[in-house]
Design a protein that fits this description.
Largest sheet: 3 strands, antiparallel
Distance between the termini: 72 Å
CATH architecture of the largest domain: Orthogonal Bundle
Number of helices: 10
Helix content: 55-70%
Radius of gyration: 25 Å
Strand order of the largest sheet: 1-2-3
CATH class of the largest domain: Mainly Alpha
Number of strands: 3
CATH topology of the largest domain: Arc Repressor Mutant, subunit A
Length: 202
């Protein structure tokens, strides 16, 4: 196994590439300890130790540190680890670890997100944002049903009216062009055509 590249990564790390395929980040003291040099050979035992012990331990700690400050979906954590050039096998092991302790739970994340956003955004907008965060469609639907059944359905008309007031928009005095612009704005916000029609018609 040949070290085909060592390039600076961040302030203190170095991206090490083996056989032109597998890339991971090590610190200077680790490179020295493992006697890694560009163009040199890396023993399989050393490579296995990095892949099975060093990097998984570091990836798990990275996940735990991220989760201290706020919640993340599995997709978001995976993206953070990929940005740190962790190999996919290491990412899977780290995600499995935090999942096993309940530290990352997409279903719980979805419920919490819906609870926080239900009075601020349309149902469609919330669902779109959760999908972008990598939450499964089924989990999103379950979270929306759970929160609305528990707290009551979303008052879409009321939300639209409050938004119109904030925009100083009066449906009674607005001309057709102004109404069309506001309708397009509300559609982009994810509100339903029926809710928009009712609000704009006063």
């Amino acid at each position: 196994m040949t070290v085909t590249g060592i390039v600076p990564e961040g302030r203190t790390g170095y991206a090490v590439t083996v056989d032109g395929e597998c890339t991971f980040v090590l610190y200077q003291k680790e490179i020295a300890a493992y006697r890694i040099r560009e163009g040199g050979e890396i023993p399989e035992e050393t490579f296995a130790g990095i892949m099975r012990e060093l990097l998984p331990r570091r990836a798990k700690l990275r996940c735990l540190n991220l989760l201290k400050s706020r919640g993340y979906t599995e997709k978001q954590l995976a993206e953070k680890l990929r940005a740190g050039k962790y190999p996919e096998t290491v990412i899977e092991e780290a995600l499995s670890y935090v999942r096993s302790f309940g530290y990352v739970d997409d279903a719980a994340y979805a419920r919490s997100y819906v609870e926080d956003q239900i009075e601020k955004k349309s149902i469609r907008r919330i669902a779109d944002e959760l999908r972008q965060k990598g939450v499964d469609r089924g989990l999103i639907e379950e979270a929306l049903v759970y929160v609305q059944e528990r707290d009551g359905g979303q008052d879409e008309e009321g939300m639209i009216r409050r938004l119109l007031e904030k925009k100083h928009f009066d449906p009674e005095t607005a001309d057709p062009a102004e109404k069309r612009r506001m309708q397009a704005f509300l559609m982009r916000k994810g509100f339903t055509a029926d809710g928009i029609r009712k609000a704009l018609n006063g």
